Amino acid sequence: MNNPTFTKKDLEFIQRIFNSRCQMLQLDPSSPEAQQIASQIFELYGQGVKQEHEIIARMILPLK
């Protein structure tokens, strides 16, 4: 993965998706599973996937 630069707006968008997924999956945001989710969101966004529904559709759910 290259090292994209994220704007404040990008980070707010990514945070909103992260919070939503953690809440839906009942995960503590500091858990290893949640960190996997964060990593996937950043990777997909950095690859140019900019629509929330597309990011969610492409995510692999973490194993508990």
Characteristics:
64 residues; mainly alpha; 3 helices; 0% strand
Brief overview:
With 64 residues, this protein is mostly helical. It has helices at residues 8-25, 32-46, 52-58. The protein has one domain.
The major β-sheet equals: none
- Uncertain residue ranges: none
* Integer tally of domains: 1
Q: H/E order of the elements?
A: HHH
Average residue pLDDT: 90
Share of residues in helices: 55-70%
Radius of gyration (CA) equals 11 Å
Q: Could you characterize the architecture of this molecule?
A:
α1 (8-25) crosses α2 (32-46). The protein starts with 7 loop residues before the first helix and ends in a 6-residue tail after the last helix. By secondary structure, it is mainly α. The protein has helices at 8-25, 32-46, 52-58. The model has no long low-confidence stretch (mean pLDDT 90). It is built from three helices and no strands. It has one domain (8-58).
